[in-house]
Design goal:
CATH topology of the largest domain: hpI Integrase, Chain A
Helix content: 40-55%
Radius of gyration: 30 Å
Shape: elongated
Strand content: 5-15%
CATH superfamily of the largest domain: Intergrase catalytic core
CATH class of the largest domain: Mainly Alpha
Structural class: mainly alpha
Distance between the termini: 74 Å
Mean pLDDT: 80
Length: 450
């Protein structure tokens, strides 16, 4: 029979066991909270933080900021002799969450099952989160405060500030988009090829799905005014980590606090809140607001069922209801340190590459869209398009079917099969054979290649 813990009637007596197990081996079950925190939190910080930060079924998966906050709140806890003492303490949200995380950690990774002789479930009974303010009580972020914060941050972060303000992205998502450039061995800067535009709608976007965070936090696109394109593609992110960016914006918030004594201090989260506030106040569909902010991943499916192209629908409401409104985003001048990237003079292309330059966009339109309104990268039409585009970029001017065949034969075998399929599809979609040669001659030049 398994030993069972029994509590004595007198509160000053220790917990005793109903069983033959040696109590000495369970001595830690009689440790008080301070002793446990000293040994298993402060004394084994690396292991405890790994639990808070790690992924997996038996880890917490917290952000670095939240994990550090949990650790610090546990070290600050006062002496708590018994669970009922929590009633008088009225702990705030983070100490409660940190305490509950500690109980889960002890239950999963140690043999401890009690603190000061009281079972974990008894402690959990009194670890109740305090109620949060109702949504209606949340204060709005004044536009003047946004402008003041923008002017107070370093010049090399002002364009990043505007990117977050316009798009509503979480700061870590926006940062990760730039970091992915660096990981690919490129400057931390967007190019024109990264920009998504919408015909007839003066808005633009960047696909942000690749920067989605873990634990369900996702965003589909980073939407912004088309007038912001030039500043964005001329901006190179300075390479700061998230903590540095947050710190610099907090410093700006402290600097301007005397100007707004009754307002909460301005932080990185204030930009995201301001974005939602701007869209909501101007009547943007709440489904679209959640879609743009990636607040509720499940809303994407609802939005897609209501709009054939959610990205275009979002862009249209963004322009018509927000950018065209009298109360819209403030005009923030580009920082003086932003230097335009020198664009090389366009190179004149001729031959088959010149025909591709004129017709490639039309060929791209054959690519089907996903339910989210983006190009279906798994389709054969997408493979055809990218194969031809790469071939035309890498190959010198081709002026005849014979030169095309020779160029294909110089291509490494893993690549040329896709190029053959793509080129055949492109030739068949042209109104006539290019460069004065019939379509059949171009197709025949691609035959019997093994």
């Amino acid at each position: 029979m398994n030993p069972r813990l029994l509590r004595c009637e007198r509160s000053d007596l220790p917990l005793i066991y109903d069983g033959n197990e040696n109590q000495g081996s369970n001595q830690e079950n009689f440790s008080d909270l301070g002793e446990i925190i000293q040994k298993h939190v402060k004394g084994d910080k690396e292991r405890f933080m790994e639990y808070l930060l790690g992924d997996g079924r038996f880890k917490r998966g917290l952000s670095q900021d939240r994990a550090t906050a949990y650790y610090n709140r546990l070290l600050e806890l006062p002496d708590i002799p018994e669970p009922r003492s929590l009633i008088e303490l009225e702990l705030k949200e983070y100490p409660v969450l940190a305490f509950r995380a500690l109980l889960d950690y002890l239950q999963t990774y140690t043999d401890i099952r009690t603190i000061s002789g009281y079972p974990f479930d008894e402690w959990r009974t009194y670890l109740v989160q305090p109620p949060r303010d109702a949504p209606g009580k949340v204060s709005r972020v004044p536009t003047d405060q946004v402008i003041a914060a923008y002017k107070s941050i370093p010049d090399n972060l002002q364009t990043f500030f505007k990117f977050l303000m316009y798009s509503g992205l979480r700061s870590e998502h926006g940062l990760r988009l730039f970091q992915q450039k660096e990981q690919a061995g490129k400057p931390m800067r967007f190019t024109r090829n990264d920009i998504i535009t919408f015909p007839g709608i003066p808005a633009a976007a960047i696909d942000s799905t690749a920067a989605a965070a873990k634990r369900g936090k996702k965003s589909e696109i980073a939407l912004f005014p088309a007038s912001f394109i030039e500043e964005l593609i001329n901006y190179e992110y300075p390479g700061y980590v998230k903590e540095t960016v947050s710190s610099k914006l907090r410093d700006a918030g402290k600097q301007i606090k005397p100007l707004f004594p009754t307002e909460p201090a301005f932080t990185m989260k204030s930009l995201r809140k301001y974005h939602a506030q701007m869209l909501l106040n101007n009547g943007v569909d709440t489904l679209i607001i959640d879609y743009l902010q990636g607040r509720k991943p499940r809303e994407s499916a609802v939005l897609i069922s209501n709009y054939a192209s959610p990205d275009e629908a979002a862009a249209r409401q963004y322009v018509e209801k927000v950018l065209n409104a009298s109360d819209t985003f403030p005009l923030l001048l580009a920082p003086a340190t932003t230097k335009p990237v020198k664009t090389p003079a366009p190179v004149k292309v001729s031959g088959l590459a010149g025909i591709w330059e004129q017709t490639g966009d039309q060929f791209q339109k054959a690519i089907p869209l996903t339910a989210a309104g983006t190009l279906d990268t798994r389709s054969h039409q997408y493979n055809n398009y990218t194969a031809v585009k790469t071939f035309m970029t890498d190959t010198p001017d081709i002026t005849s079917p014979a030169e095309l065949r020779a160029a294909i034969l110089r291509t490494e075998k893993p690549a040329y099969k896709n190029r053959l399929k793509g080129l055949r599809a492109w030739f068949r979609g042209l109104p006539e054979g290019p460069l004065g040669y019939p379509e059949d001659e171009w197709i025949n030049a691609l035959s019997r290649i093994k």
